[in-house]
Amino acid sequence: MNQMIAVDPERLDRMERQLSELTDLLRSAKIQPERQWMTIPQYAAHIDKSVRTIKRRIADGKLETADQGGECMVRALV
User: Which end of the chain has fewer CB atoms < 10 Å from its terminal CB, N or C?
Assistant: First the structure.
């Protein structure tokens, strides 16, 4: 059964623009797991590696770090 629905053309255009904007936002979204900051020893224990290995990875630029109150913190996936 076919049914016709009357829609205001301006409103339809506005809805199409909004849908297009939402589609663009969804396509550009980068959803990532929550990250948590840990000290180097905490992170080493978390991934079952040595502190020396973690420091080497930091020196190689493979881990994101930040200074928090004089303590080097590693950003880790939880």
Answer: N
Identity of the amino acid at 73 = M
Per the DSSP assignment, residues forming a β-bridge with 76 are 36
Structure tokens at 16: 């199409």
Map out the domains of the chain as residue ranges.
35-77
pTM, entire model: 0.57
Distance of CA 34 to the CA centre of its chain: 7
Nearest to 66 by CA among 29, 35, 45: 35
How far does Cα 11 stand from its chain's mean position? 34
Amino acid at site 1 = M
